[in-house]
């Protein structure tokens, strides 16, 4: 038995990582979260997860700020992951993975404003911080996520000779550096700032 890392990529971000691994799990619009959890368990076998990286889009929505008399687009409304998304309605699906995480394991969420709090303080809608805390509680892993928009590259590279393109190649997803404030949500419900999160997946 060994501690290993797995990476999950939603196809709405890209078809593969820039530096793909055989163990990468690619999910699309027809993959429910329950199937993703099953695939992660199958990929692990008898091993434990030391790190699970999830790369997908984060949802945002219009938010009315009555005190400032303005509206804006805010994050924290869940993750566009598979066919059923990761929201308050589906986050408990990840509880099935709790026995698979090693001690002090990390769950990195590479998504825009996953940890943003756009709620009005009266409920859970738009409260990404609470959702990430819930994810940590269900899995027993420390969840790392940002409260800001994230940038990544996933372009097509042209191969040229004497200025003439003779081939193109899909470069794959490179998450690059984290943007904004990056937070650590611990299984005990506490939260702390990660001031040196390092580079993202590629």
Summarize the structure.
With 202 residues, this protein is mostly beta strands.
What characterizes the major β-sheet? 7 strands, mixed
Extract low-pLDDT stretches.
none
Report Rg: 18 Å
Major β-sheet strand ordering: 2-1-3-8-9-12-13
Structural class designation = mainly beta
Description:
The chain is mainly β. It has one domain. The chain contains 2 helices and 13 strands. The chain has helices spanning 33-44, 128-139, and strands spanning 3-10, 25-27, 48-55, 57-58, 61-65, 70-74, 79-80, 101-110, 142-146, 156-161, 164-170, 182-185, 191-193. Strands 2-1-3-8-9-12-13 form a 7-stranded mixed β-sheet, with helices on one face. A two-stranded antiparallel ribbon has the order 4-7. Helix 2 (128-139) links the parallel strand 8 and strand 9. The mean pLDDT is 88.
Helix-strand layout with pairing:
Layout: E1 3-10, E2 25-27, H1 33-44, E3 48-55, E4 57-58, E5 61-65, E6 70-74, E7 79-80, E8 101-110, H2 128-139, E9 142-146, E10 156-161, E11 164-170, E12 182-185, E13 191-193
Parallel strand pairs: 1-2, 1-3, 3-8, 8-9
Antiparallel strand pairs: 4-7, 5-6, 9-12, 10-11, 12-13
Feature tags:
two-stranded antiparallel sheet; globular; 7-stranded mixed beta sheet; 12% helix; mainly beta; 202 residues; 2 helices
């Amino acid at each position: 038995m060994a501690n290993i890392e797995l990476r999950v990529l939603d196809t709405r971000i890209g078809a593969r990582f820039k530096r793909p691994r055989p163990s990468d799990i690619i999910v699309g619009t027809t993959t429910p979260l329950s199937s993703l959890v099953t695939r992660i368990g199958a990929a692990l076998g008898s091993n434990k997860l030391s790190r699970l990286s999830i790369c997908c889009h984060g949802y945002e929505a219009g938010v009315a700020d009555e005190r400032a008399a303005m509206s804006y687009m805010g994050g924290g409304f869940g993750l566009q992951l598979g066919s059923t998304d990761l929201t308050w309605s589906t986050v408990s699906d990840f509880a099935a993975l709790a026995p698979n995480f090693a001690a002090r394991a990390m769950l990195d969420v590479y998504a825009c404003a996953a940890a943003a709090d756009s709620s009005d303080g009266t409920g859970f809608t738009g409260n990404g911080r609470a959702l990430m805390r819930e994810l940590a509680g269900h899995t027993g892993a420390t969840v790392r996520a940002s409260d800001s928009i994230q940038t990544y590259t996933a372009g097509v590279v042209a191969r040229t000779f004497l200025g003439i393109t003779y081939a193109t190649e899909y470069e794959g997803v490179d998450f690059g550096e984290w943007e904004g404030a990056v937070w650590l949500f611990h299984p005990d419900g506490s939260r702390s700032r990660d001031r040196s999160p390092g580079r993202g997946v590629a």
